Amino acid sequence: MTLHGYRHSVYARIARMVCAEKPIAYGWVEVNPFAEPLPDGFLALHPFRRVPVLEHDGFVLYETVAITRYLDDAFPGAALQPADPRDRARMTQIIAIIDSYGYWPMVRQVFSHRVFRSRLGEPVDEAQIRTGLQASHKVLDALERLTGPDGYLAGSALSLADLHVAPMMAYFTAAAEGQAALAAYPQLSAWWEAMRGRQSLRETDPESFTG
């Protein structure tokens, strides 16, 4: 099995975390979707030029939600999707919330402008950070209300919801403003404290990951 991805991508990291948790061995092909030119043949794998892409015995799949569910269904190891219909629906809901409403403000606005651009010596837009923080609070409030009593986002065990949110939270809290924002949400803060200690998150850290 091969994963094509960009090591800084939260979505590629989600797929790598699933592989770490199952665990599943895989080959890694580094693809920067923002660079030109793209590797030969990549648009044949993903016509929308994003990452990750999975190849498994001739089967090609893109879109992170599809990839992670396939990995959980097709490979042995701990199940990462709840059996209970309500818990599974909650998992799907939380993934949709973070994708639809969390990724842009938390990652592309707060993290990218406060942390990533600073590292590259690029201009930082403080207005983007303020706008991102404002929108992020609504997302954090929703997740705080939905976090389960057992310390997981959906159900009584680790699920794809936890693995989907964690890489975005890692980036968000890399900014001091993100850390301060999260501190106002005790259940979500406790969840993050547990998640940030998981080996699957540590070993997929983009700063140390080599593929």
Number of distinct helices: 9
Give the second-level CATH assignment, the architecture of the largest domain: Up-down Bundle
CATH topology of the largest domain: Glutathione S-transferase Yfyf (Class Pi), Chain A, domain 2
What is the residue-averaged pLDDT? 96
Structural class: alpha+beta
Task: Indicate the proportion of strand residues.
Answer: 5-15%
C-alpha Rg (nearest Å): 17 Å
What's the number of extended β-strand segments?
4
Q: What's the CATH class of the largest domain, please?
A: Mainly Alpha
Tell me the series of helices and strands, N- to C-terminal. EHEHEEHHHHHHH
Order of strands, widest sheet: 2-1-3-4
Shape: globular
Helix content: 55-70%
- What count of domains describes the coordinates? 2
Q: Which sheet architecture does the biggest sheet show?
A: 4 strands, mixed
Low-confidence stretches: none
Protein architecture, described:
- This protein is an alpha+beta fold and 211 residues long.
- The protein has helices spanning 10-21, 42-45, 64-74, 85-120, 126-146, 160-172, 176-182, 186-195, 199-202; strands at 2-5, 27-30, 53-56, 59-62.
- It has a 4-stranded mixed sheet with strand order 2-1-3-4, with helices on one face.
- Helix 4 (85-120) runs antiparallel to helix 5.
